[in-house]
């Protein structure tokens, strides 16, 4: 009996040691991917963007009259586990013009972490990309404190605008995603996006600018259904400390309503920027095609990370989205829209391969590899790279292709709703944005009379 208990304890200790070792490996992979994304976010953009991106965590960590974002009052500030690095300290002292100032962060450090998300750091980021940043904060902030922090963020946004950088800072209560109601983060881009799809995008695109690592990345994909129990077991076994991680919760299950509402909203957005929206629209279409066996893209990327399959150019989230959409379009044998998606992807990246070698090396290398895989010739590249000078008949041809693609997505969405017995009338707010197929036609036909709208 005693020997049996000893063997049991011995085996348990081995398993725990293996778990600790595996988590340390994952942390190193996460840090490496995160640093790669930071480097890419900075090298792809102009100096003012680099300046703003680097300085924002420091501005949120401190509160001082000489710093952008300051106003009088007991304003919450301070990021958990954050210490400005050398480059941030250099920029910081340039702002305050005096290295003798000793600034101290708020002792309670109410900000859990600061994370850019969206296209930032991906091949989809270009010179016109805006910057979306989530500021995740502790739940114990009261309404007044949250309002003060929101004012500080608004002042930082104004400062960034003066630098020519379009920044949106969103306050996220770290427990808000555990609510059954969809959260409102104050941006129309996410107005009709469910918590599940919002977290899906965040988890696959987040770049930690400062603060805690995201614990969701540690949880294996097969444990997603029992996410909370698995995280609690990691804490109980001492494998992780809850004070060192941001926990927004698991992804949960994608519902018919989630897919329908988000797809309608994405179609509406495509009226203003079809090249930017077509890839996201088709990703949602792929999700609905797979339903109810949908594997969200964030989970797919995480599985690659856990398997040490650092594919798609360092798990670039935009390339991974293209990979997922490509698979879907091959499965339904839709080569027409696949060709359109590839052109949209190429134009969104803004790397003109037929022209000078002035682009960013890593971006150019990725795009060159992709177009070689696609079998594009130099003539096609020249046509796409000369988009600004397209003649009216060329623009009309492309507009028709975009319209046909969006209308096909619209029809598939309605079929998806019908086959899953969704009460479409319950989504009247979203449908009013589109009204009917004729409104999409009218919008596309009437709005696009020059290439710049693409």
TrEMBL record:
GO terms for biological process: cAMP biosynthetic process. Residues 23-216 form the Adenylate cyclase class-I N-terminal domain. It holds the Pfam family Adenylate_cycl. InterPro entries: Adenylate_cyclase_1, Adenylate_cyclase_1_N. It comes from the Bacteria. This is Adenylate cyclase. GO terms for molecular function: adenylate cyclase activity.
